[in-house]
Amino acid sequence: MKIKFRKRYLIVAKRSNKVSQCACLLDSLYLLCVARLYYIRKKLHCMELNEQQLQRRQSLQAIRDLGIDPYPPQPFEVNVTADEIREHYENDKLNYKNVSIAGRLMRRRIMGKASFAELQDDTGRIQLYINRDEICPDEDKSLYNDVFKKHLDIGDIIGVTGYVFTTQVGEISIHVTSLKLLCKTLNPLPMPKEVDGKVYDAFTDPEQRYRMRYVDLIVNPQVREIFLVRSRVIGAMRDFLIQRGYLEVETPVLQPIPGGAAAKPFITHHNALDIPLYLRVANELYLKRLIVGGFRGVFEFAKDFRNEGMDRTHNPEFTQMELYVAYQDYNWMMDLTEQMLREICTKVLDTTSVMLGNNEIEFGEPFARMTLFGAIEKYTGKNLHGLNESEIRSVAKELKVEVDESMGAGKMIDEIFGAYVEKHLIQPTFIKDYPVSMSPLTKKHREDPTLTERFELIINGKEIANCYSELNDPIDQRERFEEQAKLLDRGDEEAMFIDEDFLRSLEYGMPPTAGIGIGIDRLVMMLTNQASIQEVLFFPQMRPERR
RNA sequence: GAUUCGGUAGCUCAGCCGGUAGAGCAUCUCCCUUUUAAGGAGGGGGUCCUGGGUUCGAAUCCCAGCCGGAUCACCA
To answer: Straight-line distance from CA A131 to C1' B22, in Å?
Structure first.
């Protein structure tokens, strides 16, 4: 507006060289008013559409005026995909004499009475050759001259039929004999281009990509690939577990007591019951109730919710697979985990080693196994085993690890581990035997009552799985919960609540059980070499868009 | 949360020692019947993130804010 005025003012100033300054001023004031009115009208009538959006709406109307439905209700029969044509045409030409394919128009090269275009379906792109006199055999050339050349835009969804051929420069293409508009689009797409492997004008702004994932998926094929891997990883894991006879179950997301993990929950309210409910931070306590109920093995791919920080490895909601198997222990679960990851990696990526940044992670070799205190001693020189809370606090201070009064011994050990050890564990490593205080749901170690039978699997310096021999002594469990309750009172917002119903279930008897939780998002990050969790979530949480 | 970098056309970005807003692609008009970043000719398109300040004059300098990226710290 300001600029428009300035431009006009300059024009006026030039024109009125010989006119009095007063007249010039009046003139420009008038133009200012006109410009403002024009601006307001533009805003009201066009809802701030840009030129290209307006153009597309005009094309939409023009198409309707030609008697064509831009959003037809009939199905369009597709009998081939872009990928299939590119792969099999050369060896099976007779089978591609009558193809029908649908997708987005992604590029047009119009050369007068004939054109090339690129159609993108869910498998990739295929070139189209469109000849005016073939799609318009009669006098009426409007389908080519008006609809195709003028009123179709990049991104529009079309269906074509025709036969496959190879062009003079050797590109497998579809010679189009008929073309139908299936959906007119009103927003222009970003237009990345690739020349000799170099990508220009890529749609790379992470904010835009995450906010408009649909656009990201249309124009960035590598993004689509990540989500295909994600789906296959989950599929392979599910197959692995079902093959072994474990039951896939579903347990409550809305929980009256948020149990099973040290984490800050989201809280909500149920109107009819007039009670607070929490979004689950884990499903552990429910799956164990099912083991009490008599299932031998249960698992769930669970969305968990934690009201904590957000960064490139944390999203407020994330996916965990939790598995509980009766009559097993954590040693057995180590073997199963190793086997499962090896199988998933092989099935999904057809290899046992993956590049992750500069590190090559090897899933084919046996995973290293170390005790927690052993690992801490290895990397800090301090043996924490047998130390009491105040002794650990002083070691933590000596190591310059930040601790505060609300932290118990377990929490401080975890801090030290995080600061000194975790980053060194690049290859898959099981860290086992955690102190009792940091594992309130875990059975005491068979040889050392100050420890628990628990392991975490660390890969590339990140925890990816957490497993226990599950505590099934109801009296011991009650005492551990009471310890947690004291931490809650001390101000540890992540400490656990006492879950009376869970305790009651243990009093009915839970067989010895091994349980594990595997972070699916992190696993997928590793298998797709992604540094941020947003890249493996379709719709990562974002601040709301303004207006 | 701390530090740091950034926000300019539909997209990717340049301009930033203050002085009339630029490029490529996209879009529009015209030419072109095997092109492929198709080509040729011409045109349109901007609240330079927002709000203050300094100045005759701010996209540019200063302050505040909003949004985002990266790094660091913490939860998975």
So the answer is: 38
Contact A351, A529 (CB under 8 A): no
Instruction: List average pLDDT for each run of 10 residues in chain A, which is 547 residues long.
Output: 31 33 40 40 51 91 95 97 96 95 95 95 95 92 94 95 95 96 92 76 84 89 92 98 97 92 89 94 96 98 90 89 97 97 96 88 94 91 86 84 76 84 89 86 92 92 92 95 85 83 97 96 92 90 69
Count of other CB atoms within 10 angstroms of residue A21: 9
Token reading at A84: 């299939």
The protein residue nearest B27 (Cα–C1') is A52
Measured CA A117 to C1' B32 distance, in angstroms: 16
pTM of the model: 0.86
Q: Are A411 and A492 in contact (CB under 8 A)?
A: yes
Three-class DSSP category at A546: coil
Q: What 8-state DSSP symbol labels residue A262?
A: S
Distance A110 CA to B75 C1' (A): 56
> Distance in angstroms, CA of A42 to C1' of B32?
37
Mean pLDDT of chain A: 86
Residue A48 has a pLDDT of 66
Supply angle C-alpha A91, A93, A97, rounded to 5. 155
Which nucleotides of chain B does any protein CB come within 7 A of?
1, 9-13, 20-21, 24-29, 31-39, 44-48, 66-76
